[in-house]
Amino acid sequence: xxxxxxxxxSFSFSxxxxxxxxxxxxxxLSDECEDWRKLILExxxxxxxxxxxxxxxxxxxxxxxxxxxxEGVEEAGALPKLPVFGACSAEGVSPGSEKEKESPAVESTxxxxxxxxxxxxxxxxxxxxxxxxxxxxxxxxxxxxxxxxGESSPELGKTETAPSEISAPExxxxxxxxxxxxxxxxxxxxxxxxxxxxxxxxDLLIKSNVSRYAEFKNxxxxxxxxxxxVEQVPCSRADVFNxxxxxxxxxxxxxxxxxxxxxxxxxxxxxxxxxxSTFAQFLQTRKLTPSLQHFILHSIAMVSESECSTLxxxxxxxxxxxCLGRYGNxxxxxxxxxxxxxxxxxxxxxxxxxxxxxxxxxVQCLVVDRASGRCKAIVDHFGQRISANYxxxxxxxxxxxxxxxxxxxxxxxxxxxxxxxxxxxxxxxxVSILTVPPMELGKPAVCVIELCSSTMTCMKDTYLxxxxxxxxxxxxxxxxxxxxxxxxxxxEKETENEELEKPRVLWAVYFxxxxxxxxxxxxxxxxxxxxYVCSGPDSALGNDCAVKQAxxxxxxxxxxxxxxxxxxxxxDIIYDEDEIEAEESGLxxxxxTKPESSAEEGSNGGGAAVPKxxxxxx
Length: 618
Description:
Keywords: Cytoplasm, GTPase activation. Belongs to the Rab GDI family. It comes from Menura novaehollandiae. The protein is an alpha+beta fold. It has 15 helices and 23 strands. It has helices at 13-25, 98-102, 176-181, 200-208, 237-242, 248-262, 279-284, 290-300, 310-323, 341-352, 475-486, 496-501, 544-557, 577-584, 593-602; strands at 10-11, 44-48, 56-63, 136-137, 145-146, 188-189, 195-196, 216-218, 221-226, 229-232, 332-335, 363-369, 375-380, 385-387, 391-394, 409-418, 432-436, 446-451, 463-470, 505-515, 531-534, 573-574, 610-611. The protein starts with 9 loop residues before the first strand and ends in a 7-residue tail after the last strand.
């Protein structure tokens, strides 16, 4: 691949069009080294890897504007790009000072000037001021929201409501040629997720200090789709009592039930008779009105009506409630510039400590020693052998012969560019999550995430809408009925009344993505014990599955080591003894020179970096 992140990547609009074309053609990779099998010795055997990516299927894209008008239109000049992480410089990724960490407006300290690949997914530099009025948050920076330039920082835990911008806005006419021209304003994720504010990923970002490389925006509202209309769901205590949708009796009912959910384990007598029932059946016994049952089931717990047990529903509701108020008035954060920023942030930290990333560098096979049964090397497409002790392989690289006993699930995905929000308010800068209940029996609920331009994922006056659900058919068959309920697909046939109510889709793509989470290692045929398989993205809203999997693989390889410990400061890093001796041959023996040199070069990631202990011999 010529981009980072695999199926976790984000693309500019032109980058996504190239990705769509690649996956519609599905061409095999060329075999640059025809004689690679000659490199396998008599006491070795090869496990060939897949020659093409089969994780993406049924890719269909649609333009609902005048596509011909975009012929010859090119993207505007390249915006500043993040560096190629294999070539990080020490100066660009040094941790911020204490003053920077405590500042309410935490800026990224990445300032490298090396350019990225043209197709590189997560385009713009995080230092740029965000558009719009939404507040951004950097986890680990004292939990202080950082705001766009010129705004005051709101109090922590309060709703970050953007000021009124336009009352009753009329959507501007956006053409396809404008979308192409402003293509670098888009950062379009292949996988759509949000971060729970008390989830495993936020905790890991803070612990490992990777959070300094990213900025986040609060999801500003949770929506529900009921009786053909989109409504805002009251989440916090203040929201509940300020809501005009609920009667006073419903407000008391809802607060009483949510209070019970926060410590339901202390009251087993209230739910143990329903442990074998579904959560939906349990809600019916709690004297809740139909609208409250709908809000709790689909917008707070966000669970299946027919499959979720009472305990699972209570756990999901408690998780939602515990995440409220940490960074804002909803439980969710979204990374500026897209979900694809997250893997790149971890890549950047890895590169500082010597990790090397090779794009456009295919691997032919794993080389296994017959005597020990362990993998000892790989052979790349140049015919080069690379030896190692451990090998971590993403599921999509394994060939069909290795995966004969593996049964995969699929995720249905759609990405839309629209001209207005699904629920207009006095602020255009909203990040919304909406769960649409199943349209018919046996169908899954659909998770809809709508992003505004201040998330740095789309151009001004447009919205980026992600739809996700577990697959039952092709992505278009699964998701198009929901799209038709919420949006207009053809502007020529819409009536004036409908035009005011529904946003118009300007462009759309549907695709199915493989969900390889939950596949046990023993399901793969003939893999050596030192080869570890990681899955692609799962269909869940959060990132807990990926974090747990990464930690499990790490602990299997290094059981005595801490997973993602806080990195040492660059000035506390020195080379190991052999490298220090090599350095000393070209340096004077003055004590002032050595620590400065070793700290500078250690932070360049040139070798095995270790923290300098107090009193350690220079």
